[in-house]
């Protein structure tokens, strides 16, 4: 108990202090982390005063707080194991994974390659300064310099992203910086661990040739990619575990907290791969899958909880690490300053080489979008370092196998470099962003802002006038400023149009399609939150909406329409299910995929109809009637294709379609019922006991309709044979032999069943449905329907197929392979005669 109360006082006092710093940083217009570092240094000076004999007894609780701080000691392991998993997981959880994937290559170049390049260039630069300082240079000195360079190779996005948010900098710039920080933390710490191991293993003696650089490089790759594997696996497992915990927010949130620490500890301590990489990857997996696996109510709470945990961790680690700066700098020597100068210059040079040298190369080969000059300038100067670098430097100073002079040098230089990035780069980053104009909107964005704000003012005016009528108040004093602002906006838009020629129709359609694609994703998530669609369905639909966004970004209207056409085509999963059914005769997987397809098509149809209303009500006033007309045409074309695919399913499986539609309505009704019960409870009409009883009954009924009904594909061989006239009237024993040879199969609309020129290995009997046979020399395809067969010519003549056969609708087929075909004809002369008669007639127009 002797140290417990002072420790609690120190931590509680620090938390109270950090709660006051964000508004102060906003008032002073400083990055929050810069102010944290300054306060930490001030607390560090107070610790020196206390430990130097200063008396704090006269200050009361404040003095006890300073005394508790002076006695508070945290090791580097505490920094890394307590704070780092929270920091990394929280940052990964807040990243827009889809936007990150758009710029994955630039992010990985900035993260991994930049870390390695910074370590090499800055390390060799400091080695040169070491030689100037000491007059000698050996393996130990070079490894020390490389270790120090790896310590400062990791960047801290907190200050930079905070400035971006305040100034309204482009979202893509924030994504690049956040993504870089996530992965370069992982790469830098993995590299630092390797170099520190080499440093402590070798000692001060040795030659450069004796260092196992190849082994170190291989070990780095193993640790990095091993960490990715661990993170993916653990994130996936937690995703599976958390799904049954829906609507239990305490359990769902607790599971993610345990994931952050377990991923770090299991990877680092038990599997000896990078725990940092594992935490980052697990966080990204949860960020990507969490919105659909975790209950919607819990997801917002989870984000809030992790935001709070991240704020505490970032603030405490910065303060506690910054408190170590004053005693560290007291050990500074002129040689340390020489190394620091070399580090600053070489680190900036290495970063410039990556940003201005390697990223344009990725753009040239099409692996990444172009990054503009202003972006590059801000990314170069915005590579701030923070608490992670200080914690890694602390790990070196605590290692008894590192010589004491080396410990002092690493601590001073790393601390000096962090201070330079925070107090020089951090304080000048805001003016730099203004200088290069990244805080200003483009003409297109200005025009869109003016139109959106003008629409908003019109609605505000209507609402104000309504309120004034209700309260019998004269609306003129409140409406007059709105009218003035509207007139100013109109004049601003006229001036903008005169300077830039206004927005073209193509630009407005592009803006509209981008808006529609993002709106579509939100509508899918809303339907999921309302319990109307399942997790599996929303995952697929959100991915489709992402592809629409990518299509607009890549090729505007053509890209959007291309992505829309793909959503009605057969998915990979459905094609895989078809393959399984045809090879193994397993119907259940195919039935599941068909039911998923129907669910997706129904929801897309509903959402597209909503998007048409959204276009008419909101986008038309903003973008103009001509642009809205074009957008509506695109949506109508898309809706027609979806409806055609739905009609084909409904025609084939009418009873199933009816059952699914009933379940959709039932799930929606249950959601409304749940909200009504909650409202009755909130209004004190029913008690908590009644609410609990009603909710139990609701959960029971929801379980009954959660899973879609089972789809009967109707692929019973006996039933299918009965629909083929060729087999009608056969004796039961002959029919039984034929049934054993035939294999049922389902064909999708538009599926190519036979290709001209390929080797024929099967004959097909059509039990239901229709196909089109395209023969060379014929102007129109030949249509075959129920009772017909095709594919026999290639088997009779033993030559390649002479036609293309495409399914026009859902077709139930009976398939007979080559060997069984010849066996069947040998056994049944009547069947052979009928098949050969049809085949002879088909040879006439096509010469075979």
UniProtKB/TrEMBL annotation:
Entry keyword annotation includes Transmembrane helix: yes
GO molecular function, one term: potassium:proton antiporter activity
Lipid bilayer topology: Multi-pass membrane protein
Transmembrane segments: 6-25, 32-50, 78-95, 107-133, 139-161, 182-201, 213-238, 259-286, 306-325, 337-358, 378-397, 409-426
GO BP of this protein: regulation of intracellular pH; sodium ion import across plasma membrane
Assigned keywords, A-Z: Cell membrane, Ion transport, Membrane, Sodium, Sodium transport, Transmembrane, Transmembrane helix, Transport
Localization terms from the record: Cell membrane
Source species, domain of life: Bacteria
Residue span, Cyclic nucleotide-binding domain: 726-832
InterPro entries, A to Z: Cation/H_exchanger_CPA1 (IPR018422), Cation/H_exchanger_TM (IPR006153), cNMP-bd_CS (IPR018488), cNMP-bd_dom (IPR000595), cNMP-bd_dom_sf (IPR018490), RmlC-like_jellyroll (IPR014710)
Cited Pfam families: cNMP_binding (PF00027), Na_H_Exchanger (PF00999)
This protein's GO CC annotations: plasma membrane
Protein name: Na+/H+ antiporter NhaP, putative
């Amino acid at each position: 108990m002797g140290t417990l109360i002072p420790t609690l006082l120190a931590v509680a006092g620090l938390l109270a202090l950090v709660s006051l710093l964000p508004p102060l940083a906003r008032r002073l217009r400083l990055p929050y982390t810069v102010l944290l570092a300054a306060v930490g240094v001030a607390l560090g000076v107070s610790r020196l005063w206390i430990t130097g004999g200063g008396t704090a007894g006269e200050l009361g609780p404040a003095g006890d707080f300073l005394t508790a701080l002076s006695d508070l000691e945290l090791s580097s392991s505490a920094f890394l194991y307590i704070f780092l998993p929270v920091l990394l997981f929280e940052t990964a959880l807040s990243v827009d994974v889809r936007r990150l994937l758009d710029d994955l290559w630039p992010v990985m170049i900035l993260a991994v390659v930049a870390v390695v390049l910074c370590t090499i260039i800055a390390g060799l630069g400091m080695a040169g300064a070491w030689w100037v300082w000491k007059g000698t240079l050996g393996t130990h000195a070079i490894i020390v310099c490389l270790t120090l360079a790896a310590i400062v190779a990791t960047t801290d996005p907190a200050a930079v992203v905070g400035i971006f948010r305040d100034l309204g900098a482009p979202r893509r710039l924030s994504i690049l910086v956040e993504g870089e920080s996530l992965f370069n933390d992982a790469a830098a710490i993995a590299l630092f661990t390797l170099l520190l191991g080499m440093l402590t293993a070798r000692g001060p003696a040795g030659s450069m040739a004796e260092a196992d650089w190849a082994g170190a490089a291989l070990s780095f790759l193993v640790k990095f990619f091993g960490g990715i594997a661990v993170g993916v696996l653990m994130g996936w497992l937690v995703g599976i575990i958390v799904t049954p915990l829906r609507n239990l927010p305490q359990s769902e949130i607790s599971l993610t907290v345990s994931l952050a620490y377990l991923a770090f500890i299991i990877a680092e301590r038990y599997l000896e791969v990078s725990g940092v990489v594992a935490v980052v990857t697990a966080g990204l997996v949860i960020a990507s899958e969490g919105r659909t696996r975790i209950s919607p109510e819990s997801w917002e709470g989870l984000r809030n909880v992790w935001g709070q945990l991240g704020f505490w961790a970032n603030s405490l680690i910065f303060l506690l690490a910054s408190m170590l700066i004053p005693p560290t700098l007291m050990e500074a020597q002129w040689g340390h300053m020489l190394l620091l100068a070399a580090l600053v210059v070489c680190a900036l040079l290495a970063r410039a080489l990556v940003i201005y040298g390697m990223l344009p190369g990725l753009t040239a080969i099409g692996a990444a979008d172009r990054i503009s000059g202003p972006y590059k300038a801000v990314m170069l100067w915005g590579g701030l370092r923070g608490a992670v670098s200080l914690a890694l430097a602390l790990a070196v100073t605590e290692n008894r196998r590192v010589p004491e002079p080396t410990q002092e040098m690493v601590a001073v230089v790393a601390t000096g470099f962090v201070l330079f990035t925070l107090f020089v780069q951090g304080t000048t980053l805001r003016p730099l962003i203004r200088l290069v104009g990244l805080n200003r909107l483009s003409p297109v964005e200005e025009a869109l802002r003016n139109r959106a704000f003008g629409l908003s003012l019109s609605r505000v005016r209507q609402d104000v006038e309504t309120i004034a009528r209700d309260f019998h108040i004269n609306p003129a004093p409140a409406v007059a400023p709105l009218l003035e602002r509207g007139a100013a906006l109109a004049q601003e838009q006229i001036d903008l149009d005169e300077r830039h020629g206004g927005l073209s129709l193509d630009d407005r359609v592009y803006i509209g399609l981008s808006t529609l694609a993002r709106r579509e994703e939100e509508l899918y998530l809303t339907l999921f939150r309302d319990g109307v669609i399942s997790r599996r369905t929303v995952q697929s639909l959100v991915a489709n909406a992402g592809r629409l966004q990518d299509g607009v970004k890549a090729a505007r209207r053509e890209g959007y329409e291309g992505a829309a056409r793909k959503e009605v085509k057969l998915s990979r999963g459905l094609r895989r299910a078809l393959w399984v059914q045809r090879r193994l005769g397993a119907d259940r997987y195919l039935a599941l995929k068909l039911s998923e397809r129907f669910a997706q098509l129904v929801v897309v149809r509903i959402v597209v109809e909503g998007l048409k209303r959204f276009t008419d009500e909101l986008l038309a006033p903003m973008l103009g009637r001509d642009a809205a007309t074009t957008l509506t045409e695109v949506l109508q074309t898309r809706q027609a294709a979806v409806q055609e695919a739905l009609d084909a399913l409904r025609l084939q499986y009418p009873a199933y379609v009816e059952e699914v539609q009933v379940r959709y309505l039932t799930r929606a009704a249950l959601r409304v019922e749940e909200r009504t019960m909650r409202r009755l409870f909130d209004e004190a009409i029913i008690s908590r006991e009644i609410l609990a009883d009603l909710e139990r009954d609701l959960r029971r009924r929801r379980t009954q309709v959660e899973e879609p009904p089972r789809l009967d594909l109707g692929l019973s061989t006996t039933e299918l044979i009965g629909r083929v006239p060729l087999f009608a009237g056969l004796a039961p024993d002959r029919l039984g032999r034929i049934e054993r040879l035939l294999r049922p199969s389902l064909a999708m609309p538009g599926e190519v069943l036979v290709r001209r020129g390929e080797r024929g290995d099967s004959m097909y009997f059509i039990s239901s449905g229709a196909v089109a046979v395209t023969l060379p020399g014929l102007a129109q395809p030949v249509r075959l329907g129920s009772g017909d067969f095709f594919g026999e010519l290639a088997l009779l003549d033993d030559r390649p197929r002479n036609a293309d056969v495409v399914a026009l609708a859902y077709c139930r087929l009976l398939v007979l392979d080559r060997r069984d075909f010849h066996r069947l004809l040998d056994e049944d002369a009547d069947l052979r005669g009928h098949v050969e008669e049809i085949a002879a007639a088909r040879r006439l127009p096509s010469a075979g």
